[in-house]
Structures are given as structure tokens and as C-alpha cells.
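Our consortium's second objective concerns turning raw sequence data into structural hypotheses that experimental partners can test. To show how far this objective has progressed, the report includes one record in full. It was chosen at random from the queue rather than selected for favorable results. The single chain below, 462 residues long, was entered without modification.
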Amino acid sequence: MTRRQDPIILIAVAALLAMALAWWRASPAAAAGAGVVALAVLLMMGLARGSDLRRMTRAVRRIVAGDRGASMPLRVRGGLDPLNRAMQDLASVLAGTRESLASERLRRRILEEALREGLVILDGQQRVIVANENAGRMLGFEPASARGRLLQECTRCPDLNQLLTEAFESGSRRQTDLEPPAAPGLVAEAVVACVTDEAGRLVGGLLLLGDVTAQRSLDRMRSDFAANVSHELRTPITNIRGYVETLLQVGLEDPETARKFLDIVHRNASRLGALVEDLLSLSFVESPAMRERIEMADVRVGGLFDWVEAELGTAAEARGIRITRAGDPDLGVHANALLAEQALANLVSNAIRYVPDGSRVELSAREEGEWIAIGVRDEGPGIPERHVPRLFERFYRVETARTREGGGTGLGLAIVKHIAIVHGGSIDVESVQGKGSTFILRLPAARPQAGKVGADGVPRAV
């Protein structure tokens, strides 16, 4: 018998012994009575154990279902007690395992969500083990439904397939730029790193997809800028060198030819100087700390118009172009006066360069909430719609030959854009081919306490 005996078992054994003794003494009635007692006790034992088994079964089912409040019975009868204790130990281990898995899933989810890159973990056959939402968004699949499937089945990207094949065949890191099929216009840097076990066998790989669209665009802009600057500088320098060398060879005996050559040299030198000035201006207004460095003040819009007319009036009159005004000239802007003058001069100079002789350039100003919209409208040929999105890029020209003939450097509108940005404003263009264009420069309105600024430059209260 075991060390801990169930009292009901003892009663049953005693009843059976009594029945055997009574039968041996030829006392059927006593034997029958002892038998009834023994049967009753055994029935009670069966019912009790059945009840314990049902309690244990219910507890196990609740534990398996993940019920945190479930536990095995504290006490059961007889031979079920060792099984119950074993099940209690198993339930404790299962609870610990569940907590560990939940914690691991949470850490993995935090990692996946924190990653800005697309993440795909692959096994040795390039089947998806895990993929985050960013990867699914770029490659065009649902991360949950992709698990267990070949990555090539989930997305159609030949460049990515080739990258994976090269990486898995070589067992080394590979990377390239590609355009994900589900994200048109996006440039992603794809990196594949392979994983091997202790024996050096390839067991899987990691795919990272980073959005490098802005970085690649900036790299391309820098490359284009360097190429354009080199070209723009080389042309006038080549012309100057060529005509000066000619003058040195032929001498100055022919004054008319010498003067003609010197005029060309002067024109190219002026163009070179204008280009250098615009490059310096662009570098200045593009500086990240520009907003903190420049001084702002309330400036009367009419004063800006006066300055532009004084600067460009002669060039306009030479071609019979009239500069007119509209709107309220007493409106004020809170700006750096020199930069505001430069922006407006670039817009007006651009208009004079393109409008036909005898036409008109109109300057206007109107309030738009916290902004003052300064407009420059011309009666030129207009701008084709396809050029508008790139109009404010550096060195971008709608008509290259005509712009160069007019003396443009290709930087004027880019400078205007950055002057607007420095002030927290904007520059827009409205154009219809054959009907002219209107450039709208928005600058912050003068301070509320100043309101409009008088013609004498003294702020007036509103």
C-alpha cells in the first residue's frame, strides 16, 4: 500500500474482509451485508474518482484554451493525486512558455513597427517566414498571407529576384536600387544578407528595403547641378579666351574688328559675372540657417515696385514694354527688403525677356489672410503645361536658345523659390499658352500692429 492511503479504500477493504470471514463461518446473511457495504463503498469510490477526473479534464481544457484564471484542482482522491500534481507542473510550464512567447511576439512586433525599412525574413528556399507592413506595401502583398510562400510568388519584381538568386548562390551580401512594383516612382535600396549555420550551410536570409527616393533625387540634382554649372561657365570662358587670343594674333590695327571682338568679350564677361552672382545668391538663400540670420522688417509693397521700375524701367522702355500697377501699393510685407527686391526683380526681368515688344507687364498686390500675394503678369507666349512642374528647378529652361540670347542664367526662378521659402512663403505660376503667365509670390503680411505702411515708410496703426 502507498504511504498516503485513501480512507474510502480502507473501508472497502475492511468490508470485503468481513464478507469473506462471514462466508467462512457459514453466515450468508452477514456475508451478504458485508458485500453490500463493500459494493456501496466501491461505488462511492468510482463516483468520487469520476468526479475528480471530470474536474481535472475541465481544468486541462481551460488551461489549453489559454484561460489565465484556470488551474488544476488542489486535491483529488487516491491514485489520481500523482497525475494531478504532474498536470499542475505541466500547467505551470505551459503558462511560462506562453508568457515567453507573448513577450517575444511583442518584441518582434515593436521591432517590425519601429523599422522604417521593409523587412522580409526568408528560409533557405526563399520562403517567407516573416514580413512587416512596409515590405508588404512596397512589394504588393499581405504579410500574413505571404508566410510559407516563395517570395517570387508574392511579388513580381525581376530585379529583386535576380538579387536574391545572386545572394543565395554566393552566400554573401548583395544590394541594389530598384523600383518596387507596388510603389510607382519610389526608389528602394534592396539589401539581402544570407545566414548560415555552424556547419556553414545556408539556412535563410534577410531582405531590407529602404526608401531612398529623396536621397537619389538629391544625388541626381547635385550631379545635374555640377554638370550645368560646368557647362554654363565653360561657354563664356571659351568665348572670352577665343576672342582674346584672336585679338592677340591679329593685333588692333583694325579698330572696327577689335571693337566688335571686345564687345563680344564684354558680353560674355557680363554673362559670366551674372552667373557667378546668381550662384552666390542661390547658395546664400539655400543655407539652412538663413531664416535665423537674415533681418526682417515691415516693407511697403509700393516701395518694392518703385525700386523694380527704377532698376528695370530702362530695359523695358528700350523694347516699348510698359510696367503698370494694380491693387493696393500701401500693403506691407514682413520681409528682408533686399531679398524681396531681388525676387521681384527676377520675376519682372523674366517677364521682360519673354514678352513681345510693345506689350505690358503688370505688378499687383492683394491680401490673402496672413499673406500678401504679389503678382507679376505678362502678355507673353505662356508656358506649356508639361514645363510647369519643373519651372523652378535650377538651370531648367523652357526654351534654351531664346533664354541664352536674352542673357538668362537659368537660376532666376530657383532663387525666387528659395527666397519665398526663407520667408515661409511660396511661389506659384498660372499660365495659358498664347495668353501670358502670372507669377504669384506670397510673403508674410506686415505685423498686425503695423498694418499698412505709409508712403514715407512709417508704419501706420490699423
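The partners drew two points from this record. Residues 290-444 form a domain with the Heat Shock Protein 90 fold (CATH 3.30.565.10). DSSP finds 14 helices and twelve strands in the chain. Both points have been shared with the crystallography group to help prioritize constructs.
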